[in-house]
Design brief:
Strand content: 35-45%
Largest sheet: 10 strands, mixed
Helix content: under 10%
Order of helices and strands: HEEEEEEEEEEEEEEEEEE
Amino acid sequence: MKLFSNQAILSATAGLLLLICASGTTGFSPPERSKLPKYSFKELLWSDEFNYTGLPDSVKWTYDVGGSGWGNKEAQFYTKARRENARVENGHLIIEARREALNPPNPYTSTRLVSRVKGGGSLTYGRVEVRAQLPAARGTWPAIWMLPDDWKYGDKSWPANGEIDIMEYVGYRPAIVQASTHCKKYYFRTNNQKTDSISVPTATTAYHVYAMEWTPETITALVDGKSYFTSRNEHSGWEAWPWDHPFHLLLNVAVGGEWGGKKGIAETAFPQQMLVDYVRFYKLKQQ
């Protein structure tokens, strides 16, 4: 996606808005699909139902903190354990981006939540579901995505170690939800990233289930059970498929950036919220 981990900032540069310029699903023909192993995703491994009140559960979540631009010239400062930016109430997680110069020169604050690996918040293969309602303002850039627990491939940076974008949404492009995978061989800088989008007209007014199903052969993105993007394992090495070890989840609302802020920021529209009803990880089982 866009927002790199602290480990990757030095090696990542701006420009991920290009991911929408070379979209296209890499999938299977019907005959190929029939030869794939059959999998199920019924066993729950880890979840947060947000049936409590206060800060996000510290056993399950931690924070990425800072205002460096996150490799993409974003305008927000990500805070830690600050209720104004991240809280649970009425059965929902609220991630709130606010227009406030709490940490100059950043004119906005927000939160970037990271599922705690030691709290069970990572998996290798399986299904991830997040039921969420997205912010609506121009300049917002909410995301539901995954990064590796260990950065072991190549130069141990991004994109060599992979990224899975389950859902990205930019406020200036109403009703369009994007999914992508990034790796050394296929990513925005070489203009061959694997990505596609789907229309979700009520993305900002209703809850939808954004999901990813990950097997040794494919990574597939779905909205409300409808698949619209598949990235395929070529079996040509880690450069094209680094997704063979544990990844964890990130939830955030960025402001601005070279993709999110491409059409400017509607400053008077803040605060803006991403609402999350639940997060669930399911184990992969071969049938």
